[in-house]
Amino acid sequence: MAATKFTEAEREKLFAQLETPFDPTQIKWRVMRTSADGRSGVILPFADPRAYTDRLNELFTPSGWTREYTISTVPSLTRWTGAKWLSPAKCWWRPQ
């Protein structure tokens, strides 16, 4: 497949669309570094990788580019504490 050539106006429009901020609900935050006393640090905002893929698919699929992804789930897990089995609803990471 030959590469699609964009006019200057089309390129500027695409760049403007790529610069559009993601919806705040798609932004997550990762702590990258904290001070020894825990009072300050550095955080990094990032979007879910699917948001990037969706944006590129929306803008460039008409030109012949696309990327697919699949969403899969993990079945319910059970944890052995040494004395009894705990379902996810009763584990420490899911308070009652």
- Look at the helices and sheets and give the structural class: alpha+beta
Order of helices and strands: HEEHEE
According to DSSP, the number of beta strands is 4
Percent strand equals 15-25%
Strand ordering within the main sheet: 1-2
Please give the radius of gyration in angstroms. Answer: 22 Å
Mean pLDDT: 82
Note the overall shape: flat
Most strands sheet: 2 strands, antiparallel
Explain how this protein is built.
- By secondary structure, the protein is an alpha+beta fold.
- 24% of the residues lie in helices and 20% in strands.
- It contains 2 helices and 4 strands.
- The chain has helices spanning 8-18, 49-60; strands at residues 27-34, 41-47, 79-80, 85-86.
- The model is unreliable at 91-96 (pLDDT under 50).
Helix and strand layout, with pairings?
Layout: H1 8-18, E1 27-34, E2 41-47, H2 49-60, E3 79-80, E4 85-86
Antiparallel strand pairs: 1-2, 3-4
Could you give a quick summary of the protein structure above?
This protein has 96 residues and is of the alpha+beta class. It contains two helices and four strands. It has a domain at 13-67.
